[in-house]
From TrEMBL, chain A:
One of its GO terms (molecular function) is ATP hydrolysis activity. The keyword Aminoacyl-tRNA synthetase does not apply. It comes from Pseudomonas guineae. This is Putative ABC transport system ATP-binding protein. SMART domains: AAA.
Automatic annotation (TrEMBL), chain B:
Residues 466-661 form the MacB-like periplasmic core domain. It is a multi-pass membrane protein. This is Putative ABC transport system permease protein. It holds the Pfam family MacB_PCD. Residues 247-369, 695-813 form the ABC3 transporter permease C-terminal domain. InterPro entries: ABC3_permease_C, MacB_PCD, Membrane_comp_ABC_pdt.
């Protein structure tokens, strides 16, 4: 595959090959992803950039197992997503990946502490010590008994980061995680995210509009009209 | 896996912890729906249990009996004759007695039996098989067998020997399980003593196998066969119970609207949560299972409360219902509720089923949406819009079905199917109607606020649609049933005035007393006329029918309320050539003016021409009015049943009092016109008391549905109002606009509810009443009643809207600003 050595193949946590996805609309079929291929090594990070409608979020959703591709293959940790049924995809989402959304998507009826532990509990791998460390590093220790609506946007996104990392998945997917935050908060959340991803030994695939934030990741890739337009290795 | 599901359930339930009022509304909906349904079912179940106990008292089922042609008492020699001829018959004497100084002044049915010859089976078989019990029953002083509930209702004790109003004493009381309520069972000799009818019997029970072929009777035994007996009661009261069931079902459906509204809103508010759960790896199957489990938990909670309240509601209404059934049908129904486990389980089952129907659609709608679409509110709105289109299509189909049922329906069940299709069809079309009206209103040129008002109201219809449907159903049911009841009340009172033209009514105890009363009255100067009647019950084409013989007197021609008749029907009636027929009998036998009806009489067939049709409201049995002379000719042993006395109104009370004193007649045997009217009206009021209570509750349920919906929408409402606030509208203006919007939507719904209610009233009067009771009511309009109901409904809406409007009024800038943050 693309001339990689066997050792390099073994290190890949994400391998996307020739991915295609179209959506039906009033103007007929629209190709959102048109043969996208990319890979990500374990412990590394990749920023996915591009204009609105370029297919970044769709790609992220497909990698997260939230949606299914029309063709092509996605392998996460050597496991192919092609052909997985809904239940298997749910198991995959629970244990292999964690998604950080731009809208935070916290559970409004649960306290911060429960939100942090939420996915880890679902995956059956709740590590209280790790959770406590995360809360401390994310500056949430004093806010654990609060509900999401009682937090600022930056604090809510830190909870979302904590929830994703608590499960210690091999791959973290972030969809414009700082899109709703001011520059200072965004930098702060980004620093925490990168530090903690490194501590967790996870890989990070992040969709962003910000070239400044993208530059902080190991690699950058640009999507345009559903195709990989350019990348820095 | 269990821990995994438990955690998901915990997360879903956390929504209710954060929104306790919404949870309370959902539970209130379930509670009310289940309470009203199970309450009505408890009433029906209690009554049916009483009929079954009466029907299965002897030989374990509908009993075929022999009785005198006119139903009067006959000499027990006939019993002896038949026994000697080898007939397996058993004697029975029936009458009513009143206990002296009892807590309940109702009359009890006293039945005398001869246990040794009783047909096998039935409730008393165990006692009859027990030698000790049998001896105690038959030997002096004997026993009075009584049901435990009757004993409790009358405040009696086992072993007591209660005294009757005439001073006689009952044998000691002994409880026998399975006896019908309101019945005292004694040995035949005791009954003859207590009822002052020595050597007389009312009927002979016949061994079912022997009676199957109705063998011909010996010539010297002038008795006739009667099949079915007590089973008639269940048949006659079927309509009454079906009406109650229909009302209970309506209340249940309206209650479920609340559940549907609350569950739908909870689902809408949890769209994000569901998306997050899916994104975090909860499978669709797990989510579906847990959502259903959540519904189950809520159903069990609300259902349990509902079943308990249903029991309390039934206990509250049982007295009125029992009195109605006694007054209308002579049915004895235990006034104390005793319900078996199946009733409780069925109640909970209905609650579960209702919750699944009401909440299941939201769950399924959520399941059908793809995981990513959940994030887009537009997807939900699109789904709602599709649902409205589908609903409207279903509504049109149901209305078409209702039209078809008007044309082709010919049974009570089809009548109720018509009501259900009409109500449900109209309710389903309501959102479309409202949106059309609002769209038209929006087209009128207006300022920005007005434009926003109409446009935003259209948006509100999808969220409030269910609650407005509940309001439409409740209000139209109130208008429809109210019009029918009020129309009935006016017709009934006018009809009573005409029908009860005599000043005093006397029921002599026997033929000799009737003769004595006749002589005594003839010598009283204040008596201007006596109108004796001979009444007996016969079967015409299989159904129980009252035959009433009247003398030739001009008062009948002047006052008898005829619906239609040939010109001058009274001379041929007096000549015994024809009969007037009650409306319900004419309907049942499809009789028209001029038709011939032939009665089987002991003296041979009696051909009668149908001379006219008269209203006989409230009588479940058909009635034929014939010439007294013709009746006496064919049933010579039939004694006078009653005497109507025409006297000056001033003298009527003294005359009634004198009759009671001279002939030792109880209050129930001498009754003046005013008392009889009051009694009839009391039965009428009791009959509709439960209807009125259920109707009012249904309207209350609709108000709760609105409150629930408004409460559920309150959060999203803030983000919709925040831009207006940002553009310069004060919170007070926003609150007033919201309130006005609600009242406007409710007012449109009320406007639609009036014609729907009138169509419903028409269906009740022209279709359901005719099928259920055989009579039709004249049509009346009650605009004041509609106005009152509409104002009441608007008041309920206002009360339900004040809370959410107050919340908008009290909302500070911080909260409104946060709405923008959430919009981002």
């Amino acid at each position: 595959m693309r001339g990689f050595t066997q050792a390099q193949e073994a290190l890949k946590v994400l391998d996307v090959e020739n991915l295609k996805k179209t959506y039906g609309g009033p103007q007929g079929q629209l190709a959102v992803l048109d043969g996208v291929s990319l890979w990500l090594e374990a412990g590394h990070s990749l920023a996915l950039m591009g204009e609105s409608g370029s297919g970044k979020s769709t790609l992220l959703h497909l990698v997260a197992g939230l949606d299914q591709a029309d063709s092509g293959d996605i392998q996460v940790g050597g496991q192919s997503l092609a052909g997985l049924d809904e239940a298997a995809r749910a198991t995959f989402r629970r244990s292999q990946v964690a998604v950080i959304f731009q809208q935070f998507n916290l559970i409004p009826s649960l306290r911060v502490v429960d939100n942090l532990a939420f996915q880890a509990r679902l995956a059956g791998r709740l590590d209280e010590a790790w959770l406590s460390q995360l809360a401390q590093q994310l500056g949430l220790s004093e806010l654990l008994q609060r509900y999401p609506e009682q937090l600022s946007g930056g604090q809510q996104q830190r909870v979302a980061v904590g929830r994703a990392l608590a499960v210690r998945p091999p791959l973290i997917l972030a969809d414009e995680p700082t899109g709703n935050l001011d520059e200072n908060s965004a930098d702060e959340v980004m620093t925490l995210l990168l530090d903690l991803v490194q501590q967790a030994g996870a890989s990070l695939l992040m969709v962003t509009h910000s070239a400044r934030l993208a530059a902080r990741l190991d690699r950058q890739m640009v999507l345009k009209a559903g195709r990989v337009h350019g990348s820095e290795w | 896996m269990i821990r995994h599901c438990a955690w998901v359930l915990h997360t879903l339930l956390s929504h209710w912890r954060r929104h306790p009022l919404q949870a309370a509304c959902l539970l209130v909906g379930l509670w009310l729906a289940t309470a009203l349904w199970t309450g009505v079912q408890a009433l029906n179940s209690q009554a049916r249990n009483s009929y079954d106990r009466a029907a299965e008292l002897f030989a374990g089922g509908a009993q075929t009996v022999l009785l005198a042609p006119g139903g009067q008492a006959f000499a027990q020699d006939h019993f002896v004759t038949l026994r000697r001829a080898g007939w397996p018959v058993s004697p029975m004497l029936r009458g009513t007695v009143e206990l002296a100084g009892a807590a309940d002044t109702r009359r009890l049915q006293l039945t005398g039996i001869e246990p040794l010859t009783l047909p096998a089976g039935g409730a008393v078989e165990a006692e009859v098989q027990d030698q000790t019990s049998l001896q105690a029953f038959m030997l002096s002083p004997g026993l009075t067998w009584i049901a435990a509930d009757t004993l409790a209702e009358f405040g009696l004790e086992v072993g007591a020997t209660p005294t009757l109003v005439d001073g006689k004493q009952l044998p000691p009381l002994h409880v026998v399980p399975g006896l019908p309520p309101g019945m005292l069972l004694v040995d035949i000799s005791q009954a003859q003593r207590l009822l002052d009818q020595p050597g007389m019997l009312s009927q002979l029970l016949v061994e079912p196998a022997f009676a199957a072929d109705l063998p011909p009777l010996p010539d010297n035994v002038p008795l006739v066969w009667q099949e079915g007996g007590e089973a008639d009661l269940a048949r006659l009261t079927d309509s009454f119970h079906l009406n109650l069931t229909a009302l209970g079902l309506l209340a249940f459906v309206v209650g479920l609207f609340i559940v549907h509204a609350a569950a739908g809103l909870a689902m809408e508010q949890r769209r994000g949560l569901l998306q997050t759960l899916r994104a975090c790896g909860v499978s669709l199957k797990t989510l579906l299972a847990v959502l259903l489990l959540e519904l189950l938990v809520l159903a069990l909670l609300g259902g349990s409360l509902g079943v308990l309240s249903g029991f309390a509601l039934a206990a509250l209404l049982m007295g009125d219902i029992a009195a109605s059934l006694r007054g209308l049908y002579g049915a004895q129904v235990a006034g104390q509720l005793a319900l078996d486990a199946s009733w409780w389980l069925t109640g909970l089952g209905m609650s579960l089923l209702g919750t699944l129907i009401a909440g299941g659609s939201s769950v399924l709608a959520a399941m059908r949406l793809p995981v990513l679409a959940w994030a887009r509110p537009q997807a939900w709105r699109e789904a709602q819009s599709r649902a409205i289109r589908l609903q409207s299509l279903l509504g049109v189909t149901l209305l078409a079905l209702a039209g078809a049922l008007v044309v082709w329906g010919d049974s009570l069940l089809s009548g109720f199917a018509l009501l259900a299709s009409l109500l449900l069809g109209a309710a389903l079309l309501l959102p479309l109607c409202l949106q059309t009206v609002l769209r038209l209103a929006q087209r009128r040129p207006a300022g920005p606020i007005r434009q926003w008002f109409w446009a935003d109201s259209q948006q509100q219809v999808s969220g409030l649609g269910i609650a407005l449907m509940a309001l439409l159903l409740a209000l139209s049911a109130n208008i429809g049933v109210g019009s029918m009841t009020e129309g009935f009340r006016q017709t009934f009172i006018g009809w009573l005035d005409q029908r009860l033209s005599a000043d005093i009514y006397v029921r002599p105890q026997d033929a000799a007393q009737a003769e004595a009363i006749n002589h005594w009255l003839a010598q009283r100067p204040e008596v201007s006329a006596q109108l004796p009647t001979w009444e007996l019950e016969i079967r015409v084409e299989g159904g129980p029918t009252q035959l009433s013989g009247v003398i030739d007197h001009p008062l009948y021609a002047q006052t008898w309320p005829l619906l239609e008749a040939i010109s001058d029907p009274w001379p041929p009636l007096s000549a015994g050539e024809g009969a007037l027929v009650s409306e319900q009998l004419a309907f049942r036998l499809k009789l028209s003016l001029g038709d011939m009806l032939t009665l089987d009489t002991p003296a041979g067939p009696w051909p009668l021409k149908i001379l006219g049709r008269y209203a006989d409201y409230g009588n479940p049995k058909g009635q034929l009015l014939v010439s007294a002379a013709g009746l006496q000719q064919r049933w010579p042993d039939q004694p006078v049943s009653g005497i109507g006395i025409l006297a000056s109104q001033q003298n009527a009370p003294q005359l009634a009092s004198a009759l009671r004193n001279v002939f030792g007649l109880g209050d129930s045997r001498v009754i003046d016109q005013a008392a009889l009217k009051a009694y009839s009206q009391t039965i009428f009021e009791q009959t509709f008391a439960a209807t009125a209570a259920l109707n009012t509750l249904t309207l209350a349920v609709a108000a709760v549905a609105l409150f629930t919906s408004l409460l559920g929408l309150a959060d999203s409402r803030l983000s919709q109002l925040a831009p207006l606030w940002a553009m310069g509208l004060r919170p007070a203006q926003l609150a007033a606009l919201s309130l006005a919007q609600m009242l406007m939507l409710a007012a449109f719904t009320c406007l639609l509810a009036i014609p729907l209610g009138l169509v419903l009233a028409w269906c009740l009067v022209e279709v359901v009443n005719v099928q259920a009771f055989g009579w039709r009511l004249p049509w009346h309009w009650f605009p004041r009643q509609w106005l009152t109901l509409v104002l009441l409904a608007l008041l309920a809406v206002l009360l339900a809207s004040i809370g959410p409007a107050w919340r908008i009024l009290r909302t500070g800038p911080t909260r409104l600003l946060r709405s923008f943050a959430h919009d981002a």
